[in-house]
Design a protein that fits this description.
single chain, 123 residues, mainly beta, 4-stranded antiparallel β-sheet
C-alpha cells in the first residue's frame, strides 16, 4: 500500500484546509485510517482515526471540534478537514493505514505511512 498525502499549505490563524490521502497499490477500504502530525522539535502525535466502514471516529483532545476525518472508500481516499486553525497546529501531517478492526490511536498499530504534507498556520 502506498499513501500519498496532499492539501497542506500556509494559512492564517482561524483559516481552514482540507488534507487528502490517496491510497494506491491495494485498496484500503477495509483498513482503519489515521492522521498523525509532527511539529518541529516534537514527537509525532495522533490526530484522528476512522474505522473502515467510516462509522466510528476518534480525535485527539487538541483538535476535537475543529478537525473532521472522513473517507470515501470508492476512491480509496481519506480526508482531514482542518477548521479553526491555530499556530500550534503547524506540523507535517501524515496519513496511515492500519489492519486493526475498529480505530487505532497508537503509531505502532499502523503498518503503512504516507510521506507527509506540511501545514503552516501564521498568527
Amino acid at each position: 500500500v502506498q499513501l500519498q498525502a496532499s492539501g497542506g499549505g500556509l494559512v492564517q490563524a482561524g483559516g481552514s484546509l482540507r488534507l487528502s490521502c490517496v491510497a494506491s497499490g491495494r485498496s484500503v477500504s477495509s483498513y482503519v485510517m489515521g492522521w498523525f502530525r509532527q511539529a518541529p522539535g516534537k514527537e509525532r502525535e495522533f490526530v484522528a482515526t476512522i474505522s473502515w466502514p467510516g462509522r466510528k471516529t476518534q480525535y485527539a483532545v487538541s483538535v476535537k471540534g475543529r478537525f473532521t476525518i472522513s473517507r470515501d472508500n470508492t476512491k480509496d481516499t481519506v480526508y482531514l478537514q482542518l477548521n479553526g486553525l491555530k499556530p500550534e497546529d503547524t506540523a507535517v501531517y501524515y496519513c496511515a493505514a492500519s489492519s486493526f478492526q475498529t480505530t487505532a490511536i497508537m503509531q505502532t498499530e499502523y503498518s503503512y505511512w504516507g510521506q507527509g504534507t506540511q501545514v503552516t498556520v501564521s498568527s
